[in-house]
Design goal:
Elements (H helix, E strand, L loop, with lengths): L11 H14 L4 H21 L10 H13 L10 H20 L26 H10 L5 H16 L3 H5 L6 E2 L4 E5 L5 E5 L2 H14 L12 E2 L2 E2 L2 H15 L6 H14 L4 H8 L4 H8 L3 H12 L6
Helix pairs in contact: 1-2, 2-4, 5-9, 6-8, 6-10
């Protein structure tokens, strides 16, 4: 018998603990698990508020379509309504929940089977220009702990293109100064080596000398703040603050990843190598990230080719 206030065990909300255990058993990244659960709980909230069926077997494609329309009218924290990419992400999260239910034979068919994902207009993320990068590094100059830490973080993002979660998850032992690589744990718990250059190595060594005197120096986490290990959110907040100090507007780890992909391809390097360095398994991701400054690279390639100058 379900207690007062407890969700029915066969409802979307009641099945979330088991879904969580499944995600943990399949070694999904903590951020992925959190996102899947939050998005699925948002669906549960909507079903409850609208008086719609909450048992997965009774949920139809029509119910999900109405939920997606509802999401498109929800206000975002930054003003306006939720971005199409945010809605598409929620779609994929809940789709995984229903796929799990089919695999578990809790339901026979998923209501997502004939439901098309929301369209996401292509909006290339603006790359960070060389001038902006110089201003950002200038804002991080100095010999204080924070200055050395922030300069090292900026150079790591610029030099490796790692994700925010990968950067935040680094430990001191993950740095290999013999090979000049950082061992990162990417999506799907897949590890890879992220090479860094001489200047980034120098910035890291300078930071480590300051880190040795930090009150939390015994913690394994590489990046430390006033209260211990820095999170991905803390790193993003630091970048936002440094970007404001540099007068270059919003800066975030995602822009660094796009900038890394652009600079790699603009230098004439191979897509296959870019995939290995960034931890991508699909060429679709290369195209998505390369779109940030594709026109600029095409113009530069045209100049190098000089097709009209050969006659």
């Amino acid at each position: 018998m379900t207690g007062a206030g407890s969700p029915a065990p066969d409802s979307v909300r009641g099945l979330l603990p088991d879904f969580r255990r499944h995600l943990m058993a399949t070694n999904r990244a903590p951020q992925t698990i959190h996102r899947y659960l939050v998005d699925t709980e948002i669906l549960a909230d909507y079903l409850d508020a609208e008086g719609l069926p909450t048992a997965p077997a009774a949920i139809t494609r029509g119910h999900l379509e109405a939920w997606l329309v509802h999401l498109s009218t929800r206000p975002s924290r930054r003003g306006g309504t939720l971005a199409p990419a945010t809605i598409a992400r929620a779609y994929r999260s809940v789709q995984q929940f229903f796929r799990w239910l089919v695999d578990e034979e809790e339901i026979e068919h998923s209501p997502f089977e004939k439901l098309r994902p929301p369209a996401v207009p292509e909006q290339p993320v603006p790359i960070i220009t060389d001038e902006e990068l110089s201003k950002l590094l200038h804002a991080c100059r100095g010999n204080t702990f924070e200055a050395r830490r922030d300069a090292a973080i900026v150079r790591m993002l610029l030099d490796t293109g790692v994700r925010a979660g990968e950067l935040a998850g680094l430990t001191v032992d993950d740095l290999d100064f013999d090979l000049d690589v950082a061992r990162v744990l990417g999506k799907g718990r897949r590890g890879r080596a992220a090479p860094f250059g001489v200047r980034t190595g120098d910035a890291l060594r300078r930071y480590l000398r300051s880190r040795a005197k930090h009150p939390y120096a015994q913690q394994p986490a590489l990046w430390l703040g006033a209260r211990g290990a820095m999170t991905a959110s803390g790193i993003a907040q630091m970048l936002d603050r440094r970007g404001a100090e540099a007068g270059i507007g919003e800066v975030n780890p995602h822009r660094f990843r796009h900038t890394f992909a652009h600079r790699w391809l603009a230098a004439g390097n191979q897509e296959q190598d870019l995939m290995r360095l960034t931890g991508w398994r699909s060429r679709e991701m290369v195209g998505r990230y390369a779109a940030s400054a594709a026109d600029q690279r095409a113009r530069e390639a045209h100049k190098r080719a000089g097709l009209g100058d050969t006659l």
